[in-house]
Amino acid sequence: MSTDARSDAQRTIDVSSTPPVPFLRLVGVELRKLLDTRSGFWLITLTFGMLAAVMALVLLVLALSDTTITAAGISDAMIIPVSLLVPVLAILTVTSEWSQRTHLVTFTLEPRRGRVVLAKLVTVMILGAATIAVAVAFGALGNLLYGAVTGNDVVWNLDAAQLGWTAGVQVLWFLMAFGLGMLLLNTPGAVAVFYFFGVIAPFMIYSALYAIFDWAQSFLPWIDISLASMPFMMGESAEAGALEWGQLGVATLLWVVLPLVFGSLRVLRSEVK
């Protein structure tokens, strides 16, 4: 017994004096893991391709119909590809490791899971900010091309407040996708839930209910981020009262805060196997 005890003690590795992995290195590793994969590469490539295609389609329609558009209208069109595709990367940054069991290596190299979760969250925020900046750049380029193609005056009517709210709502979508990914730890399930409640339900179900029933106009903004954020994205934030702020806060709590909190708890406490 004493020999076995000494053998076990000799095999024990003391890592108490080992310095922790620098946080910026963790963020860099998570960025590389997210982008240096086939799924990440093709999702980013497809997003940029859709941005170019949407811009070309908008310019073609404007040139043929002789309609006018402003910078705000073009920017709204450019945000669509970012809203549809980039949140999937926020889901994959969590779920891909659990489905492929690479989390065994991740949590072995960095046993403090909270730092890994925070690094993934920072990675998602960086990716979201970068793609929003690219979408804004495409919108500005599209506005300039609109003036060159149609000969109409270029109108720069996208103020800083409206642009900030548009970017902020997109960040909420990314955080919602990230939270659902941690909560479910399953790629198909998280993607299906996000697209149903974030895309399909607001545009196909909620919009019909909102147009037909009075109760829907009072109830749906409390449970849907799209409807709750509409007054702010339309440049009416200065006129928003306690009701509008409350609706946005409750919708954000429901779809962003709660998935992030309970998803983080699941990642921190789940058995690694």
Automatic annotation (TrEMBL):
Parts of the chain that traverse the membrane: 41-65, 77-96, 117-142, 162-185, 192-213, 245-268
**UniProt-recorded name of the protein:** ABC-2 family transporter
Tell whether Ribosomal protein is among the UniProt keywords: no
Phylogenetic classification of the source organism: Bacteria, Bacillati, Actinomycetota, Actinomycetes, Micrococcales
- Keyword check for Transmembrane helix, yes or no: yes
Alphabetical UniProt keywords: Membrane, Transmembrane, Transmembrane helix
